Amino acid sequence: MKKDPGSVAFHTLGCKLNFAETSTIARKFENVGYEKRPFDEEADLYVINTCSVTENADKEFRKIVNRAKRRSPHAKIAVIGCYAQLKPELIAATSKVDLVLGMKEKFNLLDHLHTNNDDQEPVVIGNTEVDQLHGCIPSYSLGDRTRSFLKIQDGCDYPCTYCTIPLARGKSRSIDPEILLKQAREIGSQGVKEIVLTGVNVGDYRWDTQYQLLELLKQLDQVDSIQRIRISSIEPNLLTDDIVEFVARSNSILPHFHIPLQSGSDTILRLMKRRYVRELFASRVNKVREHFPEAGIGIDVIVGFPGETDAEFMETYEFLKATDFSYLHVFTYSERSDTEAISLPGSVDLPVRKERNRLLTQLSDEKNMAFTLAQLGKRQQVLFETWKNGILSGMTENYLRLHVKHSNSDLVNTIATTELVSLADQKLFGSMA
Known about the structure:
Elements lengths: L6 E6 L3 H16 L3 E3 L7 E6 L4 H17 L4 E6 H5 L1 H7 L4 E3 L7 H4 L10 E3 L21 E5 L1 E2 L10 H5 L3 E2 L2 H13 L4 E5 L14 H8 L7 E4 L9 H9 L6 E7 L3 H7 L5 H14 L4 E8 L6 H12 L5 E6 L17 H26 L3 E10 L2 E6 L4 E5 L9 E10 L2 E6 L1
Parallel strand pairs: 1-2, 1-3, 3-4, 4-5, 5-6, 7-10, 10-11, 12-13, 13-14, 17-19
Antiparallel strand pairs: 8-9, 15-16, 15-18, 16-17, 18-19
Helix pairs in contact: 8-9, 9-11, 12-13
């Protein structure tokens, strides 16, 4: 009788792209007989897909390793992902892990599990130089009944001075559109209603000079089995008029745009080596609002970048205060080794960084409340994701979480016209129209 390979549990740190890749790797394990378990349960193998965007992601990784070892002292631990590519020797030296795989080999994890490890030292495999990363492994997430993350590209050609992602994932490269259309149909055949297009730099998707993101959106919009498509995040200089105008007349692409700003000061944007000035960013928001008055608009912003004076922070604050958005993702700058920013002068004291984060987080809360209140009395198509204690919860097209009191749990993974009625205890409530 063939031996049962055992049980495996996965934990993902970081972005939607990591979740898509973890899910794809997990399906490989299940296909050869592994029992997939939640990460908070005992397992024979724990796989941690890491992130390197912030210092907190590195710290969180070590906590996760320690929790897994306490739960199952004899389990093997494999580490993959961005942090594993950038700092494999550090992981092997300071963590209780068995296997560390760089970017080139993470999808081949199954093949490396039985690597000879008699000396009980962690094995580092696939520590490939980033310029040797070629091709783009197709990936998508399954497991959530309602939503799937579909990876359309990997890597980035932008030299932002604070960012480690190009160091970990290499140059921008995209997936064959025929593969993506096939995967979209596969996802739809599983009953999933919504696809989120993800990658490192989604707006840079290009299969050839004539086939870029707009052409992919047009074809995905024709996949009958997928009712909703979101673009996860897109650089302002790549969010073209043609894309905004196509989304406005599309069948399935939702009025939700997440656009990184990072700073409202042109001086800081130049230090960051971003590819736009704030006026271009403002024009992109205005273009979206021209076509989608009710669109959800999310913005990334970094506070405390080296050289950011009080005056330059206030430029960002006032610029955002005058911008019509629905939420912010506020990041406190953290020093990352091997980036250009780490050697820039004018380091901002940590308490100042935290205070700037607090101020922008407060502004985000105020803007989000105003945006939400402005939606009351309107009708939205809502994809319901969960039902608990008589409450359905789901997302509107413009990315508001809505709750509806309803006795029928069968409405999970259905889309229904819903009126937005009230706000109570920081929660938005509605009723079936």
